[in-house]
Write a structure and sequence with these properties.
By secondary structure, the chain is an all-alpha fold. It contains two helices and no strands. The chain crosses the membrane at residues 7-27.
Length: 56
């Protein structure tokens, strides 16, 4: 369980980084900036749900 939780935190960090990167690329008007966001959001939602239910 400890390794699963660490992996969840790592994936949460990676997905948050992808969302921030996509937002930054969108602000400087780089084409295809939606790709990191569209990859990061589903990972973020899945992992944050897992971490939420760990704490219940």
């Amino acid at each position: 369980m400890f390794k699963e939780k660490n992996l969840s935190y790592l994936l949460l960090f990676v997905s948050t980084s992808l969302i921030v990167l996509g937002t930054y690329l969108n602000l400087i008007e780089i084409p295809y900036a939606f790709i990191p966001i569209s990859i990061g959001v589903p990972i973020y939602l899945q992992e944050s749900g897992k971490l939420f239910f760990y704490w219940l």
